[in-house]
Amino acid sequence: LVAALAEIGGCFAFWAWLRLGQMRAREIVCRSYDKKTFAANLQTIRGFTTLTPEQFVPKMERLCAEAGVACVLVPEIKGAPWSGAAEWLTPTKAMLLLNLRGKAEDKFWFSFFHEASHILNDSKKETYLDDGKRYEDDPAEKCADEFAAEMLVPRKFDQVIQRAKSAEEIKALAKQIGVSAGIVAGRFQHLTKRWSHFKGLIRRLEWQQDAV
């Protein structure tokens, strides 16, 4: 009974969070969705990982809107273990919804590109949710994971990343790849399962008081 009630509570929390995202997304003025523009703008947004949130958030929102995607950040709601969602509000306008669950920059950017993949590649009739779990038996989720991973740090760098011995090596690799050091540190942790290594390179993201 306790587990069932917790599940029901989680559903209510999720729908509340999703509804807040939908309401905000509908207020964002977007051009009609254009897949080529969105794909091109994602490449530009990738470069924003080295910026501060104050710098990258408005830029990211603008480039998404130019392609027909309302990118919305809504603080997480207790009991709703989701970090991202994607769905179509109309046939020509998509919503990409994010929060700061986990608060780490590598997780935030992975969620962004994961949801972007659903918009680019998957059905307009579904609502896609990211709760941090990896579903190997779900082709759409697996594809979205692979898209996000490759977009942030191409797999060809995995072996050299695993061999990194110092923070300076991680920083040098990040500069070469063109992303933040925290994202490369996160890939190192994922590949080696050494979760404490280079933890100090991963920036923590926090909500500004007026955004909560």
Features:
about 210 residues; alpha+beta; four-stranded mixed beta sheet; globular
**How is the main sheet built?**
4 strands, mixed
The low-pLDDT segments are 1-9
Mean pLDDT: 90
Structural class: alpha+beta
How many individual helices?
A: 8
- What's the Cα radius of gyration? 17 Å
Outline = globular
Report the portion of residues in β strands: 5-15%
Strand order of the largest sheet: 1-3-2-4
Task: Name the helicity range.
Answer: 40-55%
The ordered H/E elements are HHHEEEHEHHHH
Number of strands: 4
Straight-line distance between termini: 33 Å
Task: Write a structural description.
It is a single chain. By secondary structure, this protein is an alpha+beta fold. The protein is built from 8 helices and 4 strands; from the N terminus they run αααβββαβαααα. Strands 1-3-2-4 form a 4-stranded mixed β-sheet, with helices on both faces. It starts with a helix and ends in a 20-residue tail after the last helix. The relative contact order is 0.12.
List the helices and strands and how they pair.
Blueprint: H1 2-27, H2 35-46, H3 53-66, E1 69-73, E2 84-90, E3 93-98, H4 105-121, E4 128-130, H5 139-152, H6 158-162, H7 167-177, H8 181-192
Helix pairs in contact: 2-3, 4-5, 4-8, 7-8
